[in-house]
Each structure stands twice: as C-alpha cells, then as structure tokens.
Amino acid sequence: MARGKVAVALGGGAARGWAHIGVLRAMQQAGLEPDIIVGTSIGAVVGGCYVAGRLDKLEEFARSLTRRKVFGFLDFNLSGSGLIAGRRLCDELDQHLEGLMIEKLGRRFVAVATELGTGHEVWLTRGHLVEAMRASYALPGIFKPVRVSGRWLMDGAIVNPIPVSVARAFGARTVIAVNLNGDNFGRGATLVPDEVTATASEPQGEPPLPATVESEGAPQSAWKLLHRQFFGRSREEPGISTVMIEAFNIIQDRIARARLMGDPPDFMISPRLNGVGLFEFHRAGEFIAAGNAAACRQLQDLTDVAEQRSTALPVSLQVAQA
To answer: Which member of 41, 136, 241, 270 is catalytic?
Structure first.
C-alpha cells in the first residue's frame, strides 16, 4: 500500500453523531480528503454518506428533523428483538443510497459491527452500503440485529467505539479520530460510600396513564404512555431509551479508553457535547456546529497533515501523480 494514507475514524454516539458532519466539512475546507473512512454506529452512517457523495443530503435531512419527526421514524416493534423495527429509517437511507455497493464507492470505506453470540468484531468492506450502515448502528434492545452473510450483526461500538485500529489495519499512516464522548469529564470517577447517601425515592410528576382507557381518547392515551416510557416524563426521570443508551454509552466509554491507550490516533477531535442527550436528533444544527468548531481548533494541524501527505510519498509516485 502507498505510504502517506490518511484515515478518519468516526466513533459512535447516537444523536451526537451529527457532529461528524461538521468535522468532515472543516476537513474539506482544510483541503484534506482522507483516503480511508472507518465508522462505527452513527459514524458508519455519516462516513458512508460522505464517501458516497451524499453528505449534503444527509445534512439537509438532519437539519430538517424536529421532535415530532424523530418520533415518527420510531416504528415500535414490541414483538421482535428490538424496540424499533427500523424500517422507516432504512427506507429514508434507501431513498438516497439504494443500490450503492461499498466496493464501488471509489474510496475505502469500512463499517464496524459486532456479531451476536460470539462478540466477534466484523469489518464490512463489501456489499450493500445501507445494509452495512444498519448493521453498524443496530443498538442492542433498540434496533433489531441485521443478518449479513449468515451472521446476525449489531452495533459496532460494543467492541470498537472509535475504530482507530481498523484504520491502521487498512494501511493508514495518519489517523484522525473523532470521539463524540470525549467531553464527558468525570465519567471514569469512582464515588466512595461516604460521598453517596441512599434516600428513599419519591414519586415525581404525574401518574402514568393506563395502557388502555375506556374512552374516545384511548388511542391518544396509549400513544402518550408509549412516548413517556421511551423518552421519560421529565429530565429528572429518564425513559427506557435514555436508560439503555446511557448504560451502553458508559460501557462504550470504558472500552474506548482502554483501546485508545493501546492504539492512539495521531489526532483526536472531541466536539464539546457534554450534557447532550443521545436521542436529541432534532438538535442537528448545534451538533454540526460543535463538530465544525472542534475540527477548526485543529485546522492548522489538519492542513499540515495534508501537506505532509504529499511530501511523504516516494519521488516515483509523486512524478506519477503529476
């Protein structure tokens, strides 16, 4: 493989993943076009759209989202292996990416997924782009696993939250990683017993609505109940989605810390997203701006990488390129 390859490793982080759009925009402004894009979870979605030349469409879609639209994409499936079937979201991806094959994108793209049962880390480098994206973001318990080549696959962030190692494996000389959880200061802290006092919890907010109500408003009541159970009644009382994703995010953060110690990137971009809800997809504008600002803080360094890349090639290759 040619020397000087630059790769971008896009990490997982649910709604925070819109920040990847801002990072990639800043890199384009710096004249840096990476040779390899590796994505985990939401990073695979943004990275795949970028390589496919559909980043504009993805940004347009992200900025159009409202709370109501986000909830509209959640096609609940209480009888399957995930709370959300994911068909509506898949249809949206198919609308812009249908028929695209990874091996024909013109640039190396890798989506990271986890095999159900074995826990094997799976690198998807061929096949349908949308299918690879779905497998990479299939968050356990939220989205049902995706069957690819006889394997049931789920969210890649379970085993590799920030896939720097994958970028290295595909010949990257310089790796720029985007960590969407790097702004969560104090997450790795330990509270000793003297600092924590257990108290009896008191009920908060209004009582839950019954699942079935013998009145004309029954369907609406059931819908409100489902909404509250999923998103929570208030910021003080988390819903199912918050509990599951935050638990997953804590595990992901611990794994990322361990893996980055063994294989650190050359550059780490960490958008300032502390306190951001992982299901707040309707705040795309803020997250994109945060990603752009984080990348711009390192804009000169990224520009230097682009210049070093051209001078790092052997003379024969430079002449051939000219």
So the answer is: 41
Please name the residues in contact with 262: beta carbons below 8 A apart, sequence gap of 6 or more. none
Rounded Cα distance between 297 and 30, Å, is 12
- Amino acid letter, 107: R
Out of 35, 155, 253, 270, pick the active-site residue. Answer: 155
Mean pLDDT of each 10-residue bin along the chain, 322 residues long? 77 94 93 94 96 96 90 65 64 86 95 96 96 92 88 94 96 94 59 52 46 42 57 61 72 85 92 82 95 90 68 41 35
For residue 313, give the amino acid letter: L
For the question of residue 35 being annotated catalytic, the response is: no
Active-site residue flag, 149: no
Query: Residue 3: which of 225, 148, 173 has the closest Cα?
Result: 173
The string of DSSP letters for 64-77 reads H--HHHHHHT--B-
d(CA 12, CA 40): 5
Please name the residue ranges forming H helices in the chain.
19-29, 42-51, 55-64, 67-72, 87-97, 129-136, 164-169, 218-231, 240-262, 284-296, 299-311, 315-321
Is the overall model pTM greater than 0.85, yes or no? Answer: no
What distance, in Å, lies between the first and last C-alpha atoms of the chain?
19
